[in-house]
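Attaching the record inline, Q. Sequence:
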Amino acid sequence: MKRVVVVLFELWLLKMPFGSKLASRQESWSSGVIPVAHLPTQSSPAHEIGDSQTLASDPLDAQGLEMEKVEDFYPCFRKGHFMPTDQDVCGRTSTKPTSVRMVKKSFAKIPKASLDACPPKTAVLLTGLMRDWEAHVESLEKSTLEPCNTDLFVATDTLPSPLKERFGTRLKSYVEAQCDVTSFHQVWNATDAPFTPPWCQWLHLSRAWNVMTDYEDKHAFKYDVVFRQRSDMVIQPPAYMTFVGWNEADKVHMMTDMLFWAKRPAFEKVAALFPNLHKYFVVKYPDPWTRELNAVRLLDSLNRDPFFNAQDTSEGWGLYQKIKTLPYPDMGLQGAVQNLQAAVNQGATVVVGTRLHCGDFCNPGDYPPKWFVTEKDTLQWIINQDLTICDLGASAHLIKAKQHVATRKLAKDC
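Structure, as predicted:
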């Protein structure tokens, strides 16, 4: 019965508006993690577009003429979700925004120093269904693709022809393939494995990673930074992304599981989530209460998290991390930070096999056995790859989501 409830909840979420191929194939993964490059696929062959570089238009000179409404909402805290929509996720009609501002729909005068600090080579992986792309593609281009002149790779069910044509030679390769129960079972080599559509985003991500690494192999180079992008959730100009702090090898910069980026070796570990999902969350650690936890990385992530440390949390956590949901070792103290610090002080850098304390935002429904709860367990997976989670970045302070523009007042660099 619990499994049915969880599946129904995940399906309900869908309706809400709101790794490289290894440098050496012989590289060992001591934790038993399957490199994403080993992912079997039913995908259609990747479609490679071309090798010419797309020159970005000069974001320093671009000017917008329109004005766009930015709405700041108080969130609905039921299950921690927030979206600026006509109906909030508690099912009630939304109250009026706490503030409404008009901002110039400008394509931003990005500081030259920020542009000069762009990574040498960046790949954007646009994954999942191409929902609502018409309303978001211009913002995606101006805020994320053009400033650092990124290359683009796509993994989706169907890539609309007008979108493909618009991307032009910036789109280096793409793959079109369905996500279904057969795809899951083929990847995991387990015919009794569970299937739920919200996990498809991770299958699409692993496919996009494979398409990108195939391109790297063909052209004998590696990208420096990789960014995961959705079609209906974009950084909205004048906000922009130039990947501040990209040289830090052990950081993943995130806005929950919707947008995130990292230096390539760190991103590879995130992309390996789906090939390992069944093995790790269902077989190796079926009990989420005793699943391994990297206490050092969780403590570091909490200390850096803008929402966790904010005095004013009225903005809601929907455009940040739900890191308060993560469990922690129970050292008899109050709250996550104190307990984690005590565990680390006693040498317990990684805790495993001991029942953990429910997170500071505690929902026992987030702990079903033999299951992967997307937003919470994604964070735990990343932390357990010995990585620190940071915010998406200070320059990404406006987000266009489902045709609404929302402010990230707490946006910060790592």
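The longest strand covers residues 67-72. The mean pLDDT is 82.

More tomorrow.
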